[in-house]
Structure formats: C-alpha cells, structure tokens
Amino acid sequence: MKSRTAEHASADAIAAVAAYAVAGSWLAAVHSPGLGLLSVGLGAGAVVIGGPAASLLRRHPRYSTPADRVTLLRAVLVSLCAVLAVPVLFTGSPHDPLLVVMGAAAFLLDAVDGAVARRTGTASAAGARLDTATDAALVLVLSAAAAAAIGPWTLGIGALYYVFVAAGRFRPHLRAPVPSSKARKAIGAFQPFALLLALTPGIPPVLACAAPAVAFPLLMFSFARDVVELERRREGQRGLSGREGRAVRPAPPR
Question: Domain count of the chain?
C-alpha cells in the first residue's frame, strides 16, 4: 500500500511538471518576446512548478491527496502566468489578458483545495504548507506583472512572504505556527485580488493603482503583527525557562 501511495505521489508530481512543460512551451512560442526573454520566462515557470513538485516528492512517507492535486493544478496555472509575466517585467510591454484569466483561475481554486481536504479528511500540515507556498508564488508572479503596468514598488507585495521566510533562517522561532486568524486570511486573499484587479483590462488607472496601494500596507501590518506575536512568545518561553531553572537550582551548602 505504501509503495502504491508513493507511486501516486510521484505520478502526480511528474504530471504537473509535464503539463507545465507542454503548455509553457506553447505559450512561450505564441508570445515569444525573443529567445533570451523566452528562456527567462520558461525558467521562471519551471522554478514555480518545481517547488510544489519537489515538496511532494520530499514527503516521508511519500503521498499525495485529492487536495494536493488541486493545489498542483493551481501551481501549473501560476507557472504559466510566470511565463507571461516575467518577460513583461523586462520589456514593459502590455501583458496578455490570458495572464489575468489564468491568475483568476488559480486564485479561485484556492477555495477548492481546502474544501476538498476537509471533505476527504486528508487535511495535513504538509498540504497547508504546499497551499501557502502556491499562494505566495501567485502573488509574486502577479506583482511582477503589475510592476510593469504600475511601478516596481508592487514587487514588494510579492517579495514580503519570502523576506519573512528568509528571516526564519536566522531567527528559527519565526518559523513557529501562529494561531489561525480571520484577519490574516482576509488580508492574504486580498493581495492576489488587488493585483488581478489592477491587471484587468479596462480598469481605470486610479483604481488599478489604488487596489495594490491598499493591499501592500495591509500585508505589512499582517506580517508585522505575526512577528511581534512570535517574538513575544519567544520571550515568554525564555522567561519561563529562566524561572524553572531558578526553581530547581540547589541551595548552596551552609
């Protein structure tokens, strides 16, 4: 049984990469901005889909769930968005409306994988991490497309999650889980929505700029609140450890 489960996980990861390779190559050929930028776009998409596929294969024991397959589908869509978005970042040319269509599909599917996990009883920490990483990749890709249309400051929206993850390398307590928060979820969901709104053809320029301009400070507030919470928790644990150490310290001899 374990062997068959591992085979399914491997097959799912390979299928996602293969789907990207075929669809990404076609997209790059149709929207080719030149060989150099074509390679950059394809490389960016490969990085996007490679992360979820590798995450699935690194699980021990190796397995995949129906919800993981939905997330992998989202990752394929995000990687295809990267093929279109990254070259635009360098050329400054208008983005293809297909980018908004695929980005919107990936955004809407975010509500599906969680529901599938709950209905099938397969919710897990590994699945949640895969979902979060895919969300972050979508925001980063959309922020790159928005940077060409609005300004490079939108890249900060996509980069903030990765700055937080990098900080966790130096301060491991920042990698600890934080309590579930409706505000955090709402702010997180608003980021891709705001960027998609800004990228939608026909949107007035004022609204296109206003949506990310509201989303960015909200995201900074959300991350700052989590950092403060995790720092306070660490200080509390250090204080508790210190009190326990003093409590068990033997009395000096008389």
Answer: 1
Residue 21 belongs to a domain: yes
Q: What is the tally of helices (H) and strands (E) in the chain?
A: 9, 0
What tokens were used for 68?
A: 């993981």
Q: Alpha-carbon dihedral of residues 39, 41, 42, 43, nearest 10 degrees?
A: 80
List the CATH number of the domain containing 21. Answer: 1.20.120
Establish if 15 belongs to a structural domain: yes
Q: Measured between alpha carbons, how far is 148 from 123 in angstroms, rounded to an integer? A: 38
> Does residue 67 fall inside a structural domain?
yes
Task: For 8-56, write each residue's pLDDT tens digit.
Answer: 889 999 999 999 999 999 988 887 666 677 888 899 999 999 999 999 9
Between CA 108 and CA 120, with CA 114 as vertex, the angle to 5 degrees is 130
Is the pLDDT assigned to residue 249 strictly greater than 60?
no
Letter for the amino acid at 168?
G
What domain range includes position 121? 2-247
**Joined tokens for residue 237:** 């644990």
> pLDDT value at position 245?
54
Q: How do residues 87-137 score in pLDDT, each as one tens digit? A: 888 877 788 899 999 999 999 999 998 899 999 998 888 999 999 999 999
| Sign, CA torsion 180/137/47/21 | positive
In a domain, 254, yes or no: no
